[in-house]
Design goal:
The complex is a heterodimer of chains A (337) and B (340). Chain A has 337 residues and is α/β, with parallel strands linked by helices. Chain A has helices spanning 53-60, 83-89, 105-110, 125-137, 153-166, 183-200, 211-217, 234-239, 277-289, 330-336; strands at 8-20, 26-38, 42-46, 68-73, 76-77, 90-93, 171-174, 203-207, 220-224, 229-232, 252-255, 260-263, 269-274, 292-294, 302-308, 314-320, 323-327. Chain A is built from ten helices and 17 strands. Chain A is elongated, with a radius of gyration of 26 Å. Chain B is an all-alpha fold and 340 residues long. Classes of the chains: A alpha/beta (337), B mainly alpha (340). The A-B interface holds A 58, 61-63, 83-84, 86-88, 90-92, 94, 96-103, 107-108, 111, 114-115, 117, 119-122, 167 and B 215, 217-218, 221-222, 224-229, 231-236, 274, 277-281, 283, 334, 336, 339-340.
Chain lengths: 337, 340
């Protein structure tokens, strides 16, 4: 594919990123990266730590020069952007700490209007309206006069996203926006970004380690591996077994049918489980956690029978060879085996 | 209290302190005589007129300039380094200026056997101080891009200040007694020894440096959010940083050249301004720091004169005694200062 592709919000071709040493030799680099994102798509950049996600994001943000290849936004190559134009095309939410005393949420969000204001940074009435709109959109209505230092981690991340929104750029780049957040807040932030992409047509690119959430919320994955760069829908990544390759140690894998990551344990033995429904499912999970693998054959090391009496009380009957024992809870059962 | 009311009261206070600084001194002159000398010089006593116009007014003006320059320089450094403990003295910028002056005054004058501090023009003296300050600033910048740790940079400032002391000690071996004395007096800091020629140079440099700092208001605001975000907002970080450094070293260097190293104004005043104005925007902070700095320095000068007594204290000691409690209070209050 050649020529202009205005519907491609972000296009990267044969890009090499990294740091060149004084002698001109690259001492950290990733080369031959080709990725793309369409307008309004929400893309997750994933890969193991230290693989170059931040470096790629910094290069896409124009904060460091690519070593080779090209980056273009809406068909226009990035090197041709003036700082002002760049600031009106893409906004960046970084992982830098933000503990500025005496700064209110509205002031922080007003930074988004920076590329549009005069040399003193005076905001117009229209600017202030956009700022308040952005604060509303991220769900911080009523927080406009709150000190930034008093915000919780999740609220602060929302405020930073509002700042990026106020910058009114078609593309938003976020470096690990959900790191250091609790699970609830992680979901909220992903949901918020999802809405912004859907309702406002923003193209959102973020790096993340929260694969479980990313699998459900993102339109596309850009996967950086040691020797390869892959892209596709999250489901493509699952079906092609790309996610398995994220974990070089081999201890962790992705269970395609369960849609979950699992940890490969040392085999403790085999177990046969007799029972039904949810109880059976979670019993198997508990046993798998202990390293047992399911084997419904006669020769399994352990045999567990789930029994429910007339009063709906569930008990687990453990059979080892000729020995039998009954347990009231999975906890008690696991202590014994 | 609204921001404009705060500004108005600072301006009012500045007028009062300026008058007080002129009224009070080691020679007791009645308020009436001072006012007469000020407003109808012809009818005033010759001696009093000389004291007022040759000594007290230049000294008060020097205090205002020094307060403005050191405070703005401190604010700029705290913002650029995102470090509430930064300041011209802490980072070794004043030491850099001192080293410039010391090399110039003790080193060169030993070769050419004339006392630079007293005879050389005001411009060369200022120039070496600016150069010293700017070089240290660049060194600190270089280290801060390599080492992303506030404490390391502060320790570097302390090391640099010690190194300056060492070099000065070595220079002292090769200096004549008279030059040495002049230099030691200079290191104690003084607002009173500034000549009218030096005052002109000082005023020019301080006004220019202050003007530059106001041009960089937007960039300074952007720096509060960190380098990456500043860049993403379209700020040319390298150029803005150099501009701010130029302004800061011009301001701090000028005062160090003519008044000697005056500590703790640059670090303490920006904090007082933040507490008083509850602002982070430099559009408010910069004028606030300017006015507060002038006020604090005039106040220090009044205290150092020990009104009613014959002796004067070194201005250095007074600013340290006023500034250090502010810094300690700031550290205690802001326990998380390392992450700022």
């Amino acid at each position: 594919m050649t020529g202009h592709q205005p519907d491609m919000a972000i296009a990267i071709r044969n890009l090499s990123v990294g740091y060149a040493s004084v002698s001109g030799e690259a001492f950290f680099s990733r080369s031959n990266l080709s990725f793309s994102a369409r307008k309004g798509e929400m893309v997750a950049l994933i890969g193991p730590n230290g693989i170059g996600k931040s470096t790629l994001l910094r290069t896409l943000g124009g904060f460091q020069k690519p070593l080779a290849g090209e980056v273009s936004y809406y068909g226009e190559p990035l090197p041709g952007f003036s700082p002002g134009k760049r600031a009106r095309t893409l906004s960046f939410v970084s992982t830098e700490s933000l503990q500025v005393p005496n700064m209110r949420v509205a002031e922080l969000v007003a930074y988004g209007r920076f590329p549009y204001t005069n040399w003193l940074g005076k905001t117009s009435a229209a600017d202030r309206r956009l700022v308040l709109e952005a604060i509303e959109k991220v769900g911080l209505g009523g927080f406009a006069n709150r000190q930034v230092t008093r915000l919780s981690d999740g609220e602060r991340q929302r405020a930073l996203i509002a700042r990026a929104l106020a910058q009114d750029t078609p593309v938003i780049l976020l470096d690990e926006p959900t790191a250091f957040l609790d699970v609830n807040t992680k979901y909220e932030i992903f949901h918020l970004l999802h809405q912004l992409a859907r309702q406002n047509g923003k193209t959102i690119l973020l790096s993340t380690h929260d694969l479980n959430i990313a699998l459900r919320e993102m339109d596309k994955f850009w996967i950086l591996l040691e020797d390869e760069a892959l892209e596709g829908a999250p489901e493509d990544a699952v079906l092609n077994g790309w996610l398995d390759r994220l974990f070089s140690s081999g201890h962790i894998g992705f269970d395609n049918s369960a849609g979950e990551f699992f940890f490969r344990k040392k085999q403790a033995g085999t177990v046969a489980v007799e029972g039904e429904g949810v109880t059976q499912l979670w019993t198997v999970r508990a046993l798998e956690r202990r390293g047992y693998s399911l084997n419904q054959a006669e020769n399994a090391d352990l045999r567990i029978t789930i029994e429910t009496d007339d009063q709906q009380v569930t008990t687990w009957l453990l059979t080892t060879g000729s020995h039998q024992q009954r347990f009231d809870s999975l906890y008690d059962l696991l202590i014994r085996i | 209290m609204s921001q404009s009311l705060r500004f108005a009261s600072l301006i009012f206070l500045l007028g009062i302190l300026f008058l007080l600084d002129i009224l009070l001194g080691s020679v007791t002159i009645s308020a009436e005589s001072v006012l007469r000398a000020l407003f109808s010089p012809a009818s005033a006593d010759e001696t009093i007129r000389t004291i007022i116009f040759q000594f007290r007014i230049p000294k008060a003006l020097t205090a205002v300039l020094a307060g403005v320059a050191l405070s703005i320089s401190g604010l700029q450094m705290q913002t650029v380094f995102r470090n509430p403990l930064a300041g011209p003295d802490v980072l070794g910028i004043s030491a850099g200026a001192s080293l410039g002056v010391a090399l110039f005054a003790l080193g060169f004058s030993s070769f050419f056997s004339f006392g630079i501090l007293s005879f050389a023009g005001a411009w060369p003296l200022a120039l070496v101080a600016w150069l010293g300050a700017f070089l240290v600033m660049l060194l600190v910048l270089y280290v801060s891009t390599r080492v992303n740790d506030i404490m390391t940079i502060l320790i570097l400032g302390i090391l640099f200040t010690s190194a300056t002391g060492a070099i000065v000690s070595i220079l002292q071996y090769f200096s004549s007694e008279a030059m040495l004395k002049a230099f030691i007096v200079w290191t104690m800091g003084s607002l009173g020894s500034v000549t009218s020629g030096q005052l002109t140079v000082m005023a020019t440099a301080v006004i220019f440096g202050t003007f530059l700092s106001f041009l960089k208001i937007k960039a300074l605001n952007a720096f509060l959010l960190g380098e990456t975000v500043a860049r993403s907002l379209g700020v040319n970080v390298t150029r803005s940083r150099l501009g701010v450094f130029f302004s800061a070293s011009l301001l701090a260097g000028t005062i160090t050249a003519f008044c000697g190293p005056i500590g703790f104004i640059g670090i303490a005043v920006p904090h007082l301004a933040r507490v008083m104005f509850r602002a982070s925007n430099h559009l408010v902070l910069l004028p606030a720091v300017l006015l507060l700095g002038a006020n604090v320095m005039l106040f220090s000068d009044i205290v150092s004169q020990l009104p009613g007594m014959q002796t004067t204290l070194p201005i250095n000691s007074v600013t340290a005694l006023i500034g250090i409690p502010v810094v300690v209070w700031m550290i205690v209050r802001n326990k998380k200062f390392v992450s700022v």
